[in-house]
Each structure stands twice: as C-alpha cells, then as structure tokens.
C-alpha cells in the first residue's frame, strides 16, 4: 500500500490573509533569505475609520474636526436599551487626533497714502492620525491599547452621578425623599434603589460586569424625571507628544524652500458624545447664535447659574486610547507604541504627504489628509512628490499615453507645452523660494 503524502506543516504565526499555493515558502532551504528592512511605516494596518461609524440617532451633521457629538433624540433619554446600545458602540470607537499644518506670509502694499498689510494663507490642512498611531477598535484583544471604564457603586470616585456636583455615590430623587422620611439612613437609600431596579440581575445575565454597570446607569438616566439632563461619554488620549512630529514636518516643509511662517496645532476630534434631554433649554444652550448673544449681552450671569442648578449630569463612562505605553524607569521594560513607531518615525511616514499638500497649496475646510494619502506617496522621490498632481484626470493620462506611443496630435503638444511651462515655474519656485513676506 502506498504512503499517503504528509500534511504541509502548520504555520507558526497568524496571517491577515490567506496564502495561495504559489505564495507558500519552500519547505526547506540551506540559506534563508532575509527581507530588506522596510521603510518606517505602521506595523499594523487597522480597518478604516469613517464618520458614518460615529453616527448617533438624532445627531446633527458633524465632521471629524468636531470635538463633540451632540444629540437630543427623545428615545435616548427615555429608552434605556437604545441608550445602552449607542454608548456601548461608541465606547469601541477611538477619538480622532488631528494635527493641523498652516503656512502664512504677509503681503504689504503702499499706494502713497496708506500702507496696508494682509495675511495670506499659503496652505492649511489637517492630518487624521488615528489609523497611524492608535489601535484596538477592530481587535478582540487590545493589549491595553484601548481601555474602557464605567463607574461602579461604592468605588468612591468623585464624578457626576446624576447631580449638579461631583459625588462619590448615586442618590436617586425618589430614594432621597424616602430616605429623608426615615432619618436619612443609608439602608433606606439602598432599599429604595433595589425597588426601582428590581429584577436587574436576571436581565444582565448575558452581559459582562462592565456592561451590566453601563446598563444600570442607562436605566438610571432614563428613569430620571429631571427635565434638563445629560449623559456624556468621554474619550481620552494618552502617550502621545506631537512636538517631535511637528519638528520633523517643519524641517521637511523648509526643504521646499518655503520662506513663510509655519504653524502647527493639535486637537482631538470626537472626544466626547453627549445625549441631552429634548428640553428647549438644552437645545438653546448649544445653538451658536444664542451662545454668542448670551455672551455679548452679558446674559451668562443669569443663564449659566440657572442651567447649572437645573441640569442633572451623568458622566460615568469613558474610553482611553493609548498611543504608547511607558512602564517607567527601573522596570527593565522599554516604551512601546501601538503602531510600532514613535513620534519621530510617525513624522517621517507623513512627511511625503505633507510636502505634497504644502507644495500644491492645499487648503479649505475639506483639506484632511488620511492614512491613504500617506501610503499613496510612500517610496516616491522628492521630485515625484512635487510633480505629482493631486488629482490627475483620465483625459491627462490618455494624453500622456498618446504622446509616449507617438500618436499625439497638435493639441496634445500644446497641452504638453503648457504643462512644461508650469513645471518650469515650479522649478523656479523651488530654487528661488516661495511664501516670503513682501
């Protein structure tokens, strides 16, 4: 009887994709081949983050540049199950760290009577760093890169637990009235709360301990009869210092012979989600026109104390996203990063996209660079980065093909001449400098 062929050896490591037969390495080799060291790039490529993933029922239109997501949906203030589903989903999504880059210069003019100067913006855009410095929203095991927390009864942490001030324990309004009639005893408080949430343990049988605590707070919020109330989820960022990255990018922009002023700023998009009760006070307090009217007319002296006294705040849930973990000195461990590279290497990874965006004078409210923009320019030379078009049309690609194949017509030559003049002007700009004050 012939011997059956042996099964192929099992892979010793997990793979993010299935290998074809042609891709499998040989079973044995005398001299193993070591791949060349790759250029600085993310060690892990997470799933894409889209604004639609952050959708909250009833929320107004929002963009990644917004720090808060706000909604007044009535079902989120009355239906604890719906509120629980929304907050649990939002806790798994990261905040969006944004690094803004802006270049400006001053243009002065003198008409003989008056000297004027105008501040001109040469470029202004932002980098969405979430996918290149954070991880954990698409992994079952986050390895401490993402941590969530929900307050528990008896944890002695000061927080907004349904009152106007931070407190160390929850005091329901019904329980408070009953407790007063029984000489304000702690036993009465606990007994009343048990009556309100009777049967809660059986409902939480399929939930984790943290999810059960979150569901408990959602029930407390929805059962609160206060007309003005809010439930807020906070997202935090730890372990990231944007200054080394700023210095790297500033150096690359200067290599373009840019002579203007370069400014950087760092902010956090989607850093909180707030559910307001659909009361007219809550809707007016977040209206920009009303807010400015209150400030300019000095009405805040009256309105803000009223809101402070009326609002019952619930800020019991948070998620923390760690860009790096530092075990501290003396532990024998080194600092590690979520994406395998520090802030300096992150700056080098983004440098080609930043140089191309600055050179093409990219600006506007939609000037947001993503991980795909950085990966698209990875490995290109400096000349290729500066000459590439931000969005080359299909007609231009066809014209280039006709010219290269020798089938180009008269108009193709004219268009090529115009483009050649444009490229020559860009070379002049690179050699002589641009963005200087005049």
Automatic annotation (TrEMBL):
The chain crosses the membrane at residues 289-310. It comes from the Eukaryota. Keywords: Membrane, Transmembrane, Transmembrane helix. Residues 1-44 are annotated as: Disordered. Residues 24-43 have a biased composition (Pro residues). PANTHER family: EXPRESSED PROTEIN, SUN DOMAIN-CONTAINING PROTEIN. This is Uncharacterized protein. It comes from Penicillium cinerascens.
